[in-house]
Amino acid sequence: MLGLGVAGVAAAPLLQRGVEAVAKKDPTGLSGVLPAGGGFRYYSVTASVPHKGERDYRLKVDGLVERPAAYTLAELRAEPQTRLVRDVQCVTGWRVPDTPFEGVRLARLLDAAGVRPAARAVRFTCFDGAYSESLTLEQARRKDVLVALRMQDKPLGHAHGGPARLYVAPMYFYKSAKWLSGITLTDEVRPGYWEERGYDVDAWVGRSNGRDDAPTV
Q1: What does the DSSP assignment read for 97-158?
Q2: Which residues does the UniProt record annotate as the domain Oxidoreductase molybdopterin-binding (predicted)?
Q3: Which of 2, 12, 33, 182 is in the most buried spot, having the most CB atoms within 10 Å?
Q4: Pairing of strands 59-63, 180-186
Q5: 42-to-3, 30, 73, 141, 146 alpha-carbon distances in Å
Q6: Residues 81 and 145 in one domain
Q7: 17/119 same-domain check
Q8: 151 plus 98 within the same structural domain
Q9: Within a domain: 86
Q10: Is 195 helix (H, G, I), strand (E, B) or coil?
């Protein structure tokens, strides 16, 4: 048994490299159920996702607002930044503790756009062309909901939804839409990609029940 344990430790780096190689070539996303990338598991609902960068990334804010906008990465970085350190919890069971995210509070972008009285919710769309998510307006205005530009104290990489993603700290990670491209104010909550397939619309982790009592740093 000891010999098998030593052999397993020795083989672990090879297994990890093999998993990462398979994940890069797997258009189904099924290899994402295997651990990779420091505890994270990668998911995509499309076979491929275009890369966006300084020159071609835009984040649109529209719908029931007075002042529609389209932010470049430079403009998002110029906004005041908030850093949160929380556990990332996936509804499928995996968890990455104490993960720093940094970005612009979503509430700040909503205030800049001038939310109309008829607005009740926010719909998020992504440049993969398929994924979407939603929050109530009250949820979207929480202090721990960001348009994240950095993760683990470095710029948000493509595999993690970069260059900008939604980060909803108190909810399961499927609410934190990757490759964020649109923020649209709506008159009602419109279920997102996974909610249309049976997931909860209100996806609070554990017993938080939406409490706004966790500190920010």
Answers
A1: EEEEEEEEEHHHHHHHH-B-TT--EEEEEETTSS-EEEEEHHHHTSTTEEEEEEETTEEPPG
A2: 48-194
A3: 182
A4: parallel
A5: 33, 9, 23, 27, 20
A6: yes
A7: no
A8: yes
A9: yes
A10: helix
Domain that holds residue 128: 50-197
- Per the listing, tokens 């960068």 go with 53
**pTM of the prediction?**
0.79
Residue with tokens 């008159």: 187
CA separation for the pair 150, 166 (Å, rounded): 11
The CA distance from 211 to 204, in Å, is 9
Per-residue pLDDT tens digits for 149-184: 999 999 999 999 999 999 999 999 999 999 999 999
Q: CA-CA distances (angstroms) from residue 98 to 5, 151, 160, 209?
A: 29, 11, 16, 20
Same domain, yes or no, for 70 and 157?
Answer: yes
Residue 95 belongs to domain with CATH number:
3.90.420.10
What token pair was written down for 14? 């090879």
Q: Pick 65 or 28 by higher pLDDT.
A: 65
Whether residue 183 lies inside any domain: the answer is yes
